[in-house]
# Entry
Amino acid sequence: MGLTLTEKILRAHLVDGEPVKGQEIGIRIDQTLTQDATGTMAYLEFEAMGVPRVRTERSVAYIDHNTLQNGFENADDHRFIGSVAKKHGIHFSRPGNGICHQVHLERYGIPGKTLIGSDSHTPTGGGIGMIAIGAGGLDVAVAMGGGAYYITYPQVVKVNLTGKLSPWVAAKDVILEVLRRLSVKGGVGKVIEYCGEGVKTLSVPERATITNMGAELGATTSIFPSDEITKQFLEAQGRGEVWSEQSADPDAVYDEVVDINLSELVPLAACPHSPDNVKSCEEIGKLKIDQVCIGSCTNSSLLDMMKVAHILKGKTVHPDVSLSIAPGSKQVLNMMADMGLLSIMIAAGARILESACGPCIGMGQSPNSGGISLRTFNRNFLGRSGTKDGQIYLVSPELAAISAVTGYLTDPREIGEMPEFVLPEKFTVNDNMIALPASEEEAADVEILRGPNIKPYPETAPLEASIEAPVSLKVEDNITTDHIMPAGAKILPLRSNIPAISQHCFTVCDEAFPTRAKKLGKSIIVGGSNYGQGSSREHAALAPLYLGIKAVLVKSFARIHRANLVNAGILPLTFVNEADYDAISQGDVLELADIRAKVEAGETQLTVLNKTTGKEIPVLCELTGRTKDIMLAGGLLDYTRENLK
Ligand code: MIC
Ligand code: SF4
# Structure
């Protein structure tokens, strides 16, 4: 029986477990990436492991999220990461060099390799045939130390692409269509593999848009084959020698097949406040807009910018609209300048931002109150833009650009004839903003530069014999990590200071939560389905850890967040009967008697006693050999200290 591309790469990297769907496996990691908002913590964790030099083939530290330096904190973190990188053998992509995923695709990604990154959009690398997975910072730290990365051996979904996109219909519309069909939970436990004749019609940047936003499906990752088009892209980056062909066997067997005829797709938009709330322009109607933001790791490639410039040429941004454009990398920005695209955009009235995440993570450009903003980004969760009642629509760069001119949400097919956009044969390669690490001999003399805002990892403790604690918070379905640990310009500078950032934990849902939880000393959170979807930020587990959360009991978890809870030593529990969610109220006291002994014995079917009502509630506590040991030790850091010597 033939293998899927996913299985081929995973099997070639298998170091622990059996390749059986649904079972945990450990894989060897060839490359890692971090960004600054998760990186400081990841490197503090790496330091705590005591490994002198990274043991991967390539590890890269990017500065792209916290680039608004409104106070010393972010600049201190950048300096800290730069010094750690220098000392421990990590390439350092300096601020201004671009968004981690865009730069990694351009300069470091290699078909057939494995990559984990402390950012949920790491699957961008799937655009060139890598198994690229988003993970918590601690998992990335372990991989840098040479440890395996653990995932559930996934089901593989084949997205069979046929036909060719019509003029002005974009790669963004492909992933929006997949999201419309599968939903934000449709990818959990799965890898999405793109196949079929239609693949050949898509360039590498288009493929990367699709795999990037596959994160919104909750999927483990997404992947395209590596073919002649990939080869051309890598050659144009001056890296042709790293190319290899990567594809599924012709008789590969998939767990599910989704057919998409590219020719039938139309321009789409994800409406507030979820990436799967997808509608066509026609369904949305003539919507007046206040803001347009073009950029983010999903849509900031040179190809995207070429299209945007073509649409803006000779036009003026509508008087009621603010248009901002953040190119994805220094390479993109440099080439935009050389090709004259930048002056077209400036002339049209676009507000050019630095090559960084910017508005995507709420670092500036928050819309006006109730403002309607079209963004080429990947997430439109409530409040993420920095304006609580902002109405964010996720769209293609083509749709964004034309709408910025007309002042309302406009079907880009109204633009008329579309020229052929051809990527240059050679990209301008200049890696002068990547600082290389010190040699092994010099490394000992490199001083780590810490600022006063950088506080150590919160205290952990081995799993207690029994847990008895009140429910400090009860939340609904689809809680995102932006609810649990909001980002934005005001809070992000606290990413290296867990005591301080914890004061913002869950404040989107309940302003009193941090104070209440801290006062209770220990407590439990109860939630609905797909709890913790979205970002990989481990702060969404570390802040609850600091606030004394001992267990989280929900209908279901999102993959990365569940792993982050285990890593932080917080028990992840799910209801056996979802209806029991209604049998617990905020304030009820729950008891997990003899929990340590039960976890130790490998029991997965447990009972929670609601001491307030007397009701016994069956719950699942699915911890396998390794995750069981992590939980008993009090988290991955303690476990690794004991095991990775
Ligand atoms: C995001 O898009 O939410 C982020 C910011 O890139 C996060 C990482 C973080 O919270 O630092 C992600 O996607 O993992
Ligand atoms: Fe940055 Fe936004 Fe991409 Fe996250 S989704 S890495 S914040 S550009």
